Structure formats: C-alpha cells, structure tokens
Amino acid sequence: MEQIQASRAFLRLLMSLVVLGGVYFGLATVLGRHVPTRTTVDGIAIGGMSPNEATVTLQRVLAARASRPVHLEGPSHTVDIDPGTAGLEVDLEATLSQLSGFTLNPAQMWAHLTGGEDEPLRIRVDRDKLTAAVTEAARVFDSPVKEGSITFTGGTATAVVSVAGQAVKVPETTDAVVSKWPREQVVQLVMNLISPKLSADEINRAAKEFAVPAMSGPVRVVAGPVTVTLRPVQFAPALSLVPDGVGTLQPSIDAAKLLAAIRAADPAVERTPVDASVRTAAGAPQVVPAVIGMTFDESTAPASFLAALTSPTRIATITMVQAPPKVTTAMVQGWGVKEEISTFTTHFPFNPPRTNNIKIAVRTLDGTLVRPGDQFSLNGRLGPRTPAKGYQQAPVIYAGRLEKAYGGGVSQVSTTTFNAAFFSGVRIDRHTPHSFYISRYPEGREATVSWPDVDQLWTNDTGFAILIHAYVSGNDLTVTFFGTKTWDIEAVKGPRRNVVQPKTIVDGDPGCVPQSPTPGFDVTVTRIFKKNGVQVKTSSFNTHYIPEDNVQCTPHAG
Predict the structure, then answer these.
(1) Which of 141, 295, 465, 505 is most buried, with most CB under 10 Å away?
(2) Rounded distance, CA 420 to CA 146, Å?
(3) pLDDT of 189-231, one tens digit each?
(4) What distance in Å separates the CA atoms of residue 51 and residue 557, rounded to the nearest whole number?
(5) Which of 342, 343, 349 is nearest to 474 (CA)?
(6) Cα separation of 548 and 156, whole Å?
(7) What are phi and psi of 420, to 5 degrees?
(8) SS3 label, residue 378
(9) In a 3-state reduction of DSSP, which class is residue 4?
(10) Last residue of a domain, one of 332, 351, 372
(11) Most confident of 49-63, 115-129, 467-481
C-alpha cells in the first residue's frame, strides 16, 4: 500500500514538473519572439515588440528622418546632400538581428522581462557614392590660396594682400557623416586652412624697401657718351617682385623690356652695325666699308638699373659694347668684285607701258649681288609683276599670239640679263626662249620670263661674287656683270634649220594685237670657253622657234 502511494506521489510530482517545464518552455518561446522590455533604438522605444512590430515602428519613425538631406555646414554657408544619392541607407535587419531569439537561460529570460538598453541604429554605406557626394559639395567651399603681390602699373606701385585658402578634408568629412547620420542632420565640414607663402609683413617690407622707392622718381641711364632719363611710367613695365619660394619677394627686371624703354626714349643711344657691301659708282664697282655698331651690354644692364632704383643718385651706368657687322669689309674685298666680266645691251621700241615695266624691273635688278656658289633666279628677284608695284599691261606672247598682260616687256630684261650671264661664263641652269623669234634679240640667245613658272636660273660658279648693274639709257637697256674675269667667251651661231613660213590670220576680236610675219626655224648656238686664247670647253643651246603668224586685226569685223 505504501509502495502504491509512493508511486502515485512520484507521478504527481513528475506531472507537476512536466507542467512547469511546459510553462517555462512556453514562456521562453514567447520571450524569444519579442524585443527586451526596455529596449530603444536611437531613442525609439521598441521594448516588448516582436521583430515585425519593431521593424514597422522604426520604419514609421525613421522614414522622414532618413529621407531628410544632410546639411554639410561650412564656415560661411551650408550645402545639402541627398542621403539616397550619397549611398546612405538605414539597415533595420542588422539593427534588430541580435535583439530577439529563443533561449532557456533563466538569466537571459529575466533580462527579456526586465532589461533592455538603447541600441545603435545600424546603416549601410556605399563609400564610393558618399565620397563622390562630399567631393562635389567640397567644390563650393574649396578656395585656392591667393598670394599677395606688388605690381607696377602706370608708374605706381600697388600692393595686394595675400588671402588664405581652404580645402575640405573629404575622407574626414565622410567619416563624420557616417558617424552622425541619420541621428543628426547637420554635419560640420572638416576643413584644412592653407596659409599663403607671402605674409602681409613680407609684402609691406617689399613695398617699403623697394617698390615705393623704385617709383619715387626718374632714373638717369648713362650709356657711353649718352644720358637717357626714364620716368617711372616708362620703366615700370620692366619691373616685378618675384617670390623666391621661401616667402620672400625679390626684385626682378626684364632686360628686354628695359632696353626697349631706353631705345624708345632715345633711338640714337645705340648705333646699328652696317654690313659692308659693293655697289657701282661712275660705272665701276666700289666696296662700301662696314660700320661697327654700339649696343648695350645686356649682361650688366639689369643689375645696374635695379641698384639705381634704391640709390640716392638714381643713376644707372650701362656698359656699351661693339656690335660687329655680319659682313665685314674684308669679306666683301675677298669676293673679288673688281672688274667688268660681261655686259650686254638691247634696244627696245617705243611703247610707254612696256618701257615703264622695263624700268621698274631694272630698278629692282640693279645692285643684285650673287655670291660664289649661289643660284640666281630672276623671278625670285623681281617677284610678281602687279599693278601695286606700278606694272602696266603691255604685249606678251601666249600660245603663239601677242596679248596684253601686266609686266609685258620684262622679258627684254630677262634676255639682256641672260646674255650678260652667257658671256660671263656662269653655269646656265634654266632658260626658256620666246616661242617665236623676235628680231631685236640674237637668234638662239634669248630668254623669256613669266611669273611664277617660267624663270631664268643660273649658278655663279666663277669662284667670285658677281654684282649686277642694270640701267636704261634712252631706248637702250644694258646689264653688266662685275666680278673677277674667269673666261673669255665666244658665241658661234649655226645656220637656220627646218624653216617654216608663217600664215596669215584675220582677227576681229576686240583684244587683237597685230603681228608681223616671221618664219619659224631651229638654230644652235655654241658657247666657247677660252683662257689665254686657248679653248677649254664648249656648251651648245638648241632653240626651236615657231612661225610668228601675220595677224591682221579688223576691229569692225562682225
């Protein structure tokens, strides 16, 4: 009987324990599904709530706060950035993940019933986007250092004080946003102040010690026997005060601008060197001696002038040095231009526009010097024949017919020059005879010219310079070469070959130019080179002339 009673008591105890265990387990389950009683997140009460309830509560309270812009506050103003664009986002899942969960630990269950604390609100940050947003905002606040200066304008020294710069420290400011958002909407920018290298004291010192004295009055420049006075407004453009990199301003002067100011004040202070040359005088070559010039010693001028700006006398002494000519008298004498080596004369008919053109070309050609080894180009010497140069329209040959063009008649200058070149013995490189024969020129020994493609070229291979003297006397054109005679030249003309008779053309065109008939033919001219009467070499020139047709102009035809 006692055994049965004991068994019943044990069963009752076991059932009680089971019931109590079930109650305990049920309580643990309930507590594990809720946040601890006194829990807050960033000051928002969520104690006793299920994770879903807590999530809804936090979303409701934080929605407006998390969407408000972040105010980046600088020294003088504020710039807003949008949290979403900046990669800032509230992370509720991470915030609530450790605040609930099943446990049978009595202490933890008790903490759920009675405890809880203010938990941090966790956020997700896209660091690249946030850095980009802060960097963009920093553009509004960043300002470069403005170094002070002293300028010299209009003969007056003007000082400008330095201004410090500032720059946002982007990484530090980004960290500050992360630490305060979304709890705080205003974030102070982390700034870096940048001090200028030139202090106000240094600018004041440079102004007092140099700039103001420098502009206090004129400076007398003594250059050899000449004294030039420069006023501040004249020399100010050459002056400057330059930072030396260690916070000090140093006086500097632009030598080119200084010397230009002196030259402008007195152009006679220097003497330009004159190259030696050779010219004709009384029909003979004459060497014109070189003239040595005088110029500033540019290496000493700046230092002397700078010293004068703060000296009591305000006198700058600038050394003058000789400026040698590029072409010396000895050089010209060595060119050997001493005698006539060839000359040729042609006669031109009355035609005022044509004569005008010849005279213009002759003036341009006269005095031309062709150095040993140089190539002469008649087009290169004369250039285009234009009305601006005074050229007029006169007859020229085009496609076997005469017509009028600017510069007509210059071919006579070319032919005369060609013959002078022929008899001087120089190497003939290129020449173009007229298309039909013109009786005032020697057969096979003439050359036309036309800009820019028909040219006369020859190379001076005599070993000495050649001076070309060209002049018009009455209706005669003469070209003479002066140099050192190297060759005796003879010209031998062969007989006419392949003669073709001209035809008659009647032309009623208003621009018609009449022509006299001349047969066409071929001819060879041989140039014989002699020294001391002995033939050394020869060269031949073959020329083909087309007929000059008999052109009869009938103005009233048609």
Answers:
(1) 465
(2) 73
(3) 888 888 888 888 888 999 999 999 999 999 999 998 999 999 9
(4) 118
(5) 349
(6) 79
(7) -65, -40
(8) helix
(9) helix
(10) 332
(11) 467-481
Please tell me whether residues 416 and 447 are part of one structural domain.
yes
**What is the rounded distance in angstroms from the CA atom of residue 406 to the CA atom of residue 393?**
4
Q: What are phi and psi of 176, to 5 degrees?
A: -65, -40
Nearest to 160 by CA among 212, 213, 209, 207: 207
Q: How confident is the model at residue 146 (pLDDT cuts 50, 70, 90)?
A: confident
Residue-range definition of the domain harbouring residue 539: 335-553
Question: Do 280 and 392 sit in the same domain of this protein?
Answer: no
Do residues 413 and 448 lie in contact, with contact meaning Cβ atoms separated by under 8 Å? no
Mean pLDDT, to the nearest integer, of 229-257?
91
On whether residue 134 sits in a domain, the answer given is no
Q: Are residues 454 and 359 in the same domain?
A: yes
Q: Which residues contact 315 (CB under 8 A, 6 or more apart)?
A: 219, 220, 222, 308
The H-assigned helical ranges of 158-254 are: 170-180, 200-206, 212-214, 232-235
**Structure token digits, residue 28:** 């643990």
Q: Say what the pLDDT of residue 45 is.
A: 74
Looking at the structure, tell me whether residues 322 and 345 fall in a common domain.
no
Residue at 313 is within a domain: yes
Which CATH number belongs to the domain containing residue 225 in this structure? Answer: 3.10.20
Same-domain status, 457 and 511: yes
Reported confidence tier of residue 129, pLDDT bands at 50, 70, 90: confident
Q: Which among 210, 231, 323, 316 has a CA at the least distance from the CA of 271?
A: 323
Which three-class secondary structure state does DSSP give residue 170? Answer: helix
The pTM of this model reads 0.59
Shared domain for 344 and 328, answered yes or no, is no
- 3-state SS class at 546: coil
Phi/psi at 97 (nearest 5 deg)?
A: -60, -30
Residues 322 and 422 in one domain: no
Cβ atoms of 468 and 370 closer than 8 Å = yes
Residue 177 located in a structural domain: no
* Token pair recorded at residue 291: 């003239």
pLDDT tens-place string over residues 298-354: 888 899 999 999 999 999 999 999 999 999 999 999 999 999 999 999 999 999 999
Q: How far apart are CA 35 and CA 73, in angstroms?
A: 37
* Total Cβ atoms within 10 A of residue 326: 9
294 and 310 inside one domain: yes
Write down which residue in 332, 359, 382 finishes a domain: 332
The answer to whether residue 217 is domain-embedded is yes
